[in-house]
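Q: Here's a chain of 377 amino acids. Please give me its 3D structure as tokens.
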Amino acid sequence: DEPRSPASKPMRSPQFMAMSRMAGFGSERLLSSPPSFAKKMSSSIPPPMLSTEDPQLQRRYDAQIEIEEAGRHLTAISQSPDGRRLAVGGRNVLSILSLEGLTTHGGCLTGAEQSQLSRSRIKCTTQDVRWHPTQSDYIATGSSDGKVTLWNLGALRGGNLPLQAWSSKEHEKSVWRIAWCLPHQGQEHLLLSGALDGTIRMWDFRGGFKSVMVHKNSQREQVRDLRVCGGEPWKIAAGLEVAQEGAIVLWDVRSPDTYLMRIDEETAVHAVDWHPAHTDILASGRQFRGLHSPGCIKVWDTSQNGRDIHPIAKIPTADGVSNLMWRPNFRTQIACTYLNSVSQLDVWDTAGHASALAGLPLASCTGHTEPVTDLVW
């Protein structure tokens, strides 16, 4: 995959505040840099994205990762806590790939652990895979048969431990998304799963593998995305498909009987992502359905109360949005993938730049021949 346009500079607080003023959002407290974030930015400024203006950089590609059993549709990807491995799931396959051979000039990587995993009782589509945030030997998967499974990768190195540490089938339809609670809040034993049966469950792995229902609705609602807020891990956001429409719903898992907020959309919401530095800022991406309901990315300030909440930023897209992920250390940049006809990955600046408002991304990564199903920075 090759970036197509010049890089932007790392984000600065005044630029992000400009977005809030232009969109009629006055709470600069949320959009100014927190002390911890400012310290991180000053101590480690990441390199800019590659620019195609330099012919030397045009020859620098990311690695092309080849799955041993080629030709199988891949649906999900997750990176290990130490950044050395990737878990990749798809149709009848679950593979672990090593990144240790990856260089700035690319490479072709295959994984020594993938063949045993991909042949270990994977008789359905691995719809989502997420590495445990602190335990590098454990990954969780959600699959098309309604199962949530915990895998112990330590079993690949020998011993008597089972490869499949635990599995449960309490969802009636495909488990579309799973999400771990983050480790710095001491909640890394909790796993959330959202399914096409309209339910969200929270699993507690501290002895007994118990689950509680966070959300249950009629089966006309389908959970298409699910994210835990990093700074406030009791707060979750879900993107829903509701018949021919959609919704963004927020819950407090400590009292899930009523939701914190519900934002109705004209089309299905397939992607949500909490901002890594601001616990009230949430991005969403919706499905494309004709000229009157185009695909788009919206940014919300969820601290606003009431039913008349409006997005603080809106970016039109050429296709429906399937995934969103904020770019680390670049506070207004977000990457997205698409649902149907667009087979590239785009990076957008949400800070009100004219290029974004005109539907032009900061960078486009091409090379896939089918729509991208997942991404990770």
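Q: Can you summarize the key feature?
A: The radius of gyration is 20 Å.
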